[in-house]
Give the backbone structure.
Amino acid sequence: MALIVEKYGGTSVGSIERINAVAEKVSRTHAAGNQMVIVVSAMSGETNRLLEMAKEISSDMPAREADVLVSTGEQVTIALLCMALIKNGEKARSYTGGQVRIETDTSHGRARIQNIDDSRIKKDLAKGKIIVVAGFQGVDSEGNITTLGRGGSDTSAVALAAALKADECRIYTDVDGVYTADPRIVPEAHRMDQITFEEMLELSSLGAKVLQIRAVEFAGKYKVPLRVLSSFEDGPGTLISYEVGRKMERAVIAGIAHNADEAKLTITGVPDHPGVAHSILGGIAEKGINVDMIIQNIAADETTDFTFTVPRADYESAKSILAKVSDELGARGVTGDNSIAKVSIVGMGMRSHTGVADLMFATLAEEGINIKMISTSEIKVSVVIDDKYTELAVRALHKAFELDKKLQ
Amino acid sequence: MALIVEKYGGTSVGSIERINAVAEKVSRTHAAGNQMVIVVSAMSGETNRLLEMAKEISSDMPAREADVLVSTGEQVTIALLCMALIKNGEKARSYTGGQVRIETDTSHGRARIQNIDDSRIKKDLAKGKIIVVAGFQGVDSEGNITTLGRGGSDTSAVALAAALKADECRIYTDVDGVYTADPRIVPEAHRMDQITFEEMLELSSLGAKVLQIRAVEFAGKYKVPLRVLSSFEDGPGTLISYEVGRKMERAVIAGIAHNADEAKLTITGVPDHPGVAHSILGGIAEKGINVDMIIQNIAADETTDFTFTVPRADYESAKSILAKVSDELGARGVTGDNSIAKVSIVGMGMRSHTGVADLMFATLAEEGINIKMISTSEIKVSVVIDDKYTELAVRALHKAFELDKKLQ
């Protein structure tokens, strides 16, 4: 008898019909002799409906009360899913985050899980009950309701799986697994049966938005066997593993990620002295703008050019902050480009194969694609290119690294 | 500095505009130097919206999960009201029933409050915070969410007022107080400044649906000063008192209640032996049908006629149950009337004034209204009449008992 934690996102429980379908699916897995803990999100659209009401009152939402408000979304889903399971003849029981209890710190809206009390759930599982837990939410040590931030239900599921020492944590989503590239761009892209934890981490952070990155980190920390599957069709999905299997070794890179939602900014001719990076990025960070790639070139004249990327939506506000910084620092000026894309190759195989980056650069050159920025990590090479070449670059790289030949 | 508990029902918080208006009102009372605890219901329509979703899944709703579901309604309101108060510059803090904590028994959907932990609220009040509590809900000793049943928010407010030893509990509703009769029927009816607890209890149970009867009982038990006011216009409302004031003694009766939503059933010629009443009413009670007035006449032939009233909606099902009972008991038969009304006069003054019932009967006779049933208590006389005479009877009695002359 295996203990399985399953997570269904907002789209998977977006209507009564779909909640009934999830109940059917859960009942089948339960009937096959497994113990089941189900984590659910709010029905799709519900969190936004609640936030719209709050915004009507005030644009400056007090964080504690925002959490009290939006946490009702998941609470509605757990009750409805339990009703559907009980209708199917199951013994089912719902728990809010506070009831479990999932204890977090007090950072409302982006709380981190600190402890999970698994005693009530274990007792219920022993009685043959199916447990349905509200994702995305917890309570702090004083019993205040907290939320983990958007997509936090993945983290709830992984944390519960870790606490319960579950045999597998299944994240049901609207795709049937992790692909070697976006199949909308590369028709030859295929679902990976397995991917390593490190690769998944890089792919998550690079815009392959299958799993929340914090959930992957959490899974890695506690070595939770994690599987991504489709809630709409049956299939094995993609298993995230913590060891590199024999088959996987043959693949140099696991997949190609892209993000066409970026912009880059350069401040040129900055007098080069200690503390420059902080002077430049301090104001950007204060505004809560995420900085992704950062490159600094030292020029011959003892000034430096400093380039970084930001989400495209933050381009204008970042640019105006930077213009002020430029004046203060006595820099030459600010240039920018908000029609760029980032393309990355990710794979454990890079560590033992040389020439991976070179093959990437050669492939892009052959297609006449100019590289504007490069950044590398141990298992990843990212380049910034003109966004109009995104699809072309991804397709060319997919072919060059022979991802169209299914190795696994 | 007074401690005031205020309760706002679903209509009073039915939109963002109204929530803002409630926040303004609360801020004013707080600014006048009072400590404030606010109890709110779900926004009007919300509870039904949630139940409709549940009914789509199953008509047979599991009670525990139904409570998890509907309790989200009040949780949304506490968050939104706190946001509105904070926008006004107040320090406000929301609590769900479980967070307070309001402990109840485990009767999901109709739980009874057993204990209230006032420590967190008292600490917050001492810091100048306005407390907003979700009405209608609590938790049992194991932390399962419970609800008190429709209208339970009144009970939550009174129970909190009792626990906190509040100086006053104000129930805001869509009427501006308790009237001597329904002003839609009797234009001369006037708002009472005060009414005794016992009178209010009789009026509540008689269809003057200003306050939930359990809330009134609770208030009486703990001698909570209770005031009914309008949330839409300013005014003193009606104070429910536990002592008869000087002015109040002059009034023989406090008010006239009517309920035109009744039906009566009679089973005739029942062989008279012990246990007959139970044989007759057992099946009715089993079906959850509320029986109100009960009258039994012993006839000369050692059979008995047994008459009782039920809500009009339950008339047909009660009649068919009774037909079966009649056969079993060897009774003569079943007759019924589903076009009756109950009219009652209520007043503490009855206890010391004779002839009150007689004046009622004489007044009705003068108008040619036939009395079909009579039932009396210490401070109430109820009669059942043909429902077409309801308005005429209420108006005639209002005049006969000089309620049009404002005594208070």
The domain at 3-248 of chain B is CATH 3.40.1160.10 (Carbamate kinase). Chain B touches chain A through 38 residues (CB under 8 Å).
